[in-house]
Design a protein that fits this description.
Shape: elongated
Radius of gyration: 16 Å
CATH architecture: 2-Layer Sandwich
Number of domains: 1
Strand content: 25-35%
Largest sheet: 3 strands, antiparallel
Oligomer: single chain
Number of strands: 3
Structural class: alpha+beta
Strand order of the largest sheet: 1-2-3
């Protein structure tokens, strides 16, 4: 029984890790465009999390930063498990260069 629960928790953690990684990538894609902003990155990442895992990811945190060189989005959350009180942390960071127009 313990082995089955460990497998279920591993699957929950793995799925949640993929969700937060993709949310961070979606957020940085919105923040890195030429007209993008930090807020656009956070909004895109939060929207992605709301759509894919609204109940399983709790205590979510999405932070975004952008300067003239690069954009970065960090997403972290706790995975709500099957056993009350047993939560697993997931975190992902995505970084990309900021797009800019350069005349030929």
């Amino acid at each position: 029984m313990v082995l089955i629960m460990a497998c279920v928790y591993l699957a929950l953690w793995s799925h949640a890790q993929h969700v937060v990684t993709t949310a961070a990538q979606e957020g940085v894609a919105a923040a890195r465009v030429e007209t993008g902003t930090e807020q656009a990155g956070e909004d895109r990442a939060n929207g992605f999390l709301d759509a894919l895992a609204p109940a399983r990811l709790v205590e979510r945190s999405v932070t975004s930063s952008r300067d003239s060189e690069q954009a970065q989005v960090v997403v972290s959350a706790m995975v709500e498990g099957l056993v009350p009180g047993l939560r697993l942390r997931v975190q992902a960071t995505a970084t990309a260069p900021v797009e800019e127009f350069r005349a030929p």
